[in-house]
Amino acid sequence: MSVGGLRPRLAVVWLVLFVLVGAIVAIEHANVVRQTSGREGDGDPRMLLPVAVDQLGAIEVATAGMLHRFERDPAGAWFYHGVHAGSEGTHAHSADPAMAARIERAFLAFGRTRIERQFALAAPGGDYGVAAPETIVLVYRPNERQPLVQYAVGDILPDTVSRYVLVVGTSTVVTIPNYQIDNLLTLIQTVRGASGADRTTRNSRR
């Protein structure tokens, strides 16, 4: 076979090879995109949290005049830091593995909160209850003193299924499932009850 006859065939082989490599790269890229978009709260505009819960270091819930703080320990386990009311308050650190798992489940569920609808923040009289919220949620990255984002929790919608929430610093009110806020408030009741029981037990042993 002549050299002139081989060159066209080699060109065809190289062309096919380039096409196959390009197809493989495209498939791998599509897989990466799908995996990334499927992560919990990872920059998805449909999610309430801007990042995944495992990228957070602390969550605070201010309600009924008290600030409840939850943190991660160096091993990544969640614990209830305590309640603060004005200049007073306790700093109860719970290392109970069962309670740490309970807190983590609640926050993972909160991390899956999806935005249902969005509204422009109207003039006074149409503030959706976010101008003077009864509950505020603050989330922090690890080792940071300033919150990553703050949420002013507003009124429950007439359907009792959803609730208005304002991302503080924006002019957009969103609705989310009301049970997500109920779950956070229930978590606070649970950890406070456990902390109170622990204190009673310790005092009885003195």
Structure keywords:
3 helices; disordered C terminus; alpha+beta; 206 residues; globular; 9-stranded antiparallel β-sheet; 9 strands; 2 domains; 26% strand
Mean pLDDT: 79
* Arrangement of strands in the largest sheet: 4-3-2-1-6-7-8-9-5
Number of strand elements: 9
Round the Cα radius of gyration to an integer and report it.
Answer: 25 Å
Please tell me what the overall shape is: globular
- SSE run: HEEEEHEEEEEH
Strand content: 25-35%
Please tally the helical runs, counting DSSP H or I stretches of 4 or more residues: 3
Report how far apart the termini are: 99 Å
Helix content: 25-40%
Largest sheet: 9 strands, antiparallel
Number of domains: 2
- Low-confidence residue ranges: 24-41, 86-92, 200-204
User: Helix/strand-derived class?
Assistant: alpha+beta
